[in-house]
Amino acid sequence: MTTTLDANVNTAVQTSTFLDRVMARAQFPDMYDARDMVVVVYRTLRDLISTELAEAIAADLEQTQLSDARDKSLQGSIARLWWDTNPLVRTLSRWRAPLKVTGERFLRRVIEEGGGLPAGVTPEAAISAVFAETKPELSPDTERQLVAALPSSIELLWKQA
Known about the structure:
The protein contains 10 helices and no strands. The two termini are 20 Å apart. The longest helix is centred in the first third of the chain and has 16 residues, at 31-46. It is 64% helix and 0% strand. It is an all-alpha fold.
């Protein structure tokens, strides 16, 4: 049985921009929450992968716009959210090896670094929303490499998204 909420989410997912779709899937109250969650999930993903794979993902994400909002913080390509905005952190992350993170630690980082989630939104739902909207943007080879780097419980979220 399809609820009104499911129908609204499906309509938003089919007809809107990247941040609109993340917002609808995760049931975030606004695009700012969606943007902030995308940044946190992407930061956590970057820590799991090589610099070469991070660059491949950024190239794939360059093709799609975040939103059509007037607010400049919501404009640009998805790749703008992929890279860290702190130049020092961005440079240092290129030199370090990928981290080994458990699924539990991945979830904890998303909760802690995300500054909390809106009422009624689980970390799994938020991560799945980001994954569901990111997957179609990646080439098959890039996606395969990314999935291989995920902890098993997070890989399951990716596959279900």
